[in-house]
Amino acid sequence: MTDDLDTETLAFAHRMFDLARAGATEELSGYVEAGLPVNMTNDKGDTLLILAAYHAHPATVAALLGRGADHSRVNDRGQTALAAAGFRKNAEAVRALLEAGADPAHGNPSALETARFFDLSEMLTLLTSH
């Protein structure tokens, strides 16, 4: 988001990110279908997909992936949606991202590095067995 956006546009953008955080799948999907960029990014580099994954909303993750969300995008800290989903121990979101082609070694830290660092053995097994 840039400084040249008006207050109303900024408020709308913040609301879209809040929908991703809240897992408001149907409402967010409706906006994407109406033209909201599915890869919209906030001021920290977080995409709607990264936020949905971090806040453990696998249905929203799947819906965004189904509408073309780029699972390979990284935020300003180098994190991916897959790393976020793994960190939150959300197997359903991890599976959806892996099935969409997300690379467990992508990002810094990657999903694999995150699972190893936090000793998330179930996530590590899921990430390495796909």
Give a nutshell description of this structure.
The chain has helices at residues 7-22, 25-33, 48-54, 58-66, 81-87, 91-99, 111-117, 121-129. It has 130 residues and is mostly helical.
Task: Describe the model.
The protein has 130 residues and is mainly alpha-helical. The chain has one domain (7-129): Ankyrin repeat-containing domain (Serine Threonine Protein Phosphatase 5, Tetratricopeptide repeat, Alpha Horseshoe), CATH 1.25.40. The protein is 56% helix and 0% strand. The protein contains eight helices and no strands. Helix 4 (58-66) runs parallel beside helix 6. The longest helix has 16 residues, at 7-22.
Number of helices: 8
The secondary-structure element order is HHHHHHHH
CATH A-level architecture: Alpha Horseshoe
User: What percentage of amino acids are in beta strands?
Assistant: under 5%
Biggest sheet character: none
Structural class: mainly alpha
Q: What average pLDDT do the residues reach?
A: 96
CATH class, anyone? Mainly Alpha
Q: For the CA atoms, what is the radius of gyration?
A: 14 Å
CATH topology: Serine Threonine Protein Phosphatase 5, Tetratricopeptide repeat
Q: Termini, distance in Å? A: 35 Å
CATH homologous superfamily identity:
Ankyrin repeat-containing domain
